[in-house]
Amino acid sequence: MRDKLNIDGVNVYYKGDISRGAVVFLHGGSLNGQVFREQFSQISLFPMVAIDLPGHGHSERAADPGAVYNIPAYARLVSGLVGKLGLEDIILAGHSLGANIATEAAATLPSLQGLFLFSMSPFCMPPRLDLMCVPNPFLGYLVGGRLRPAEALLLAGEMVENNGELSELLASWILETDMAARLSFAASLGLDHFADELCILAHFQKPLAVLWGKTDRFINPLYLQRLAPVSLWQNGIIELDAGHVPQLESPGQFNTVLEAFYKHVKRQVCSDSNVCNTGNCV
Asked: What pTM, to 2 d.p., does this model score?
């Protein structure tokens, strides 16, 4: 299914199967739902839905960028879309910025059964971008305005490891994104316009998976160690043989981990309820 719904005055595009028990994918900044194309083509274990955030992909651009292009607004939008679609017993799978959004949306989704987060640095309060990210001269492009094609290609090349064709694809998505989405998100960082995500995850009571690509050129793995006290699935952060976009770079490995997490979540739900009546245990 492919369609658009109006959420908070913005027409938001989504695609996928809205059956009970879906994995709902949230993409990273300057990308779109197509970044999960390998999951849609290779996974049949569970239904999937991918959302294009406002200003990205096929979704409408915001008339008021400052009010829409920030993490709390994105989180409200995701919650509103899940509600309008009647999605139940879902797992949120967030990539990069999408993982921050998933973290902040979690508390507003009663039927959420788990979080699957990858290529992300959870915000602390006050924000410490210098700790969250490794030094990278191209990081500014993620929060810059209009990018020239060569600049978009340089940014894409930092996201993936030695893959010219994939870099070109990512660059095309970056260029299609509303530049106001990057500028307004950057402006929101100075307004404390988000929650303490480290605290949210530390108190998250449902299954939580956190993944990191070993060649990621943006995420600081030392910062991720702040999640060590959190009860993580597999007892720690899972390393993948990829960079910042593991779902496209190493789809086989990524999909295997996602399918295993899905099975774990559904088995735990059945175990916690004593009697399996969800209809989607695996």
From this structure: 0.95
